[in-house]
Write a structure and sequence with these properties.
binds zinc ion, DNA Binding (I), subunit A, two-stranded antiparallel sheet, about 5% strand, mainly alpha
Length: about 250
């Protein structure tokens, strides 16, 4: 139309494509191929219709289509650096295109990424393992940065998890999970090996501190459950080792 139309923000202008308009409804100017000199500087048919038209024409005349492809290939062979030069000269344009494309297709891209991650779970974990092995200093730095305060805030959970890991390594039957404190309270802070009081204030690795003792040792086929654990001084627990015949075992049976 006239120059006034050029000052309108493209996002505010909606046009009907002469082909798909009745079904698709109005579309923004960005959906139409550029055509300088035409109203709004765009063609009457939208990009999607143009692509369909082109595909139909190519299918109807495969020889002409092949000739066109050959010509393009020859042209690029004669101008080998053209693409690189164009890309180098349009870095910002390409970046902006990427930003716009990702913004317009955010959900589809996310879905595609989730799908890829789900179907490549093994690949991803292999990659992560390899990366961790190749960059041990990064893991150490992360631990030093994050671990101490997190550990301090979650100590009982850390201890419980470490024990479960140890038990799993021993192939021990883990029938229940519980906090140490629950067992200490149940046994009223009395060591079930020497039957002396356990001082609540003593902490690991103090030999007098509280520890969890498996009545039937895991090594002898005992399982990890409330019924098979008692409170014991660390020193009493470690001196017992995996031996049999302690008083509380007889008590249990
Ligand atoms: Zn259209
Ligand atoms: Zn004891």
């Amino acid at each position: 139309m006239d120059a006034q139309d050029d000052t309108t923000e493209p996002s505010e202008v909606l046009l009907l494509c002469t082909q798909c308009g009745p079904t698709k409804g109005p579309q923004p100017l960005s959906a139409f191929p550029k055509a300088p000199g035409r109203p709004y500087g765009v063609r009457k048919t939208c990009k999607a219709c143009k692509a369909l038209d082109r595909a139909a024409k190519n299918a109807a005349n495969p020889e002409k289509h092949q000739a066109k492809l050959d010509y393009i290939r020859q042209w690029h062979a004669a101008h080998p650096t053209y693409n690189q030069e164009w890309e180098a000269a349009h870095v910002e344009h390409r970046q902006q295109w990427g930003i716009d494309y990702r913004a317009a297709n955010k959900e589809a891209l996310q879905e595609s990424m989730h799908g890829w991650r789900a179907s490549h779970a093994g690949h991803i974990s292999e990659y992560n393992k390899q990366y961790a092995a190749d960059h041990p200093e990064e893991g150490r730095a992360r631990n030093q940065r994050n671990y101490p305060p997190y550990y301090a805030a979650n100590k009982p959970a850390f201890i419980a998890r470490a024990r479960l890991r140890r038990l799993r390594l021993l192939n021990a039957p883990v029938l229940e999970t519980f906090r140490d404190e629950e067992i200490f309270e149940r046994d009223k802070w009395i060591c079930q090996i020497c039957f002396e009081k356990v001082n609540k204030k003593l902490k690991w690795p103090d030999p007098g501190s509280a520890s969890i003792d498996h009545v039937i040792p895991i090594a002898k086929g005992g399982s990890h459950c409330r019924q098979n654990v008692v409170l014991a001084h660390r020193i009493c627990n470690s001196s017992k080792g995996a031996r049999n015949g302690t008083p509380q075992q007889q008590r249990l049976f």
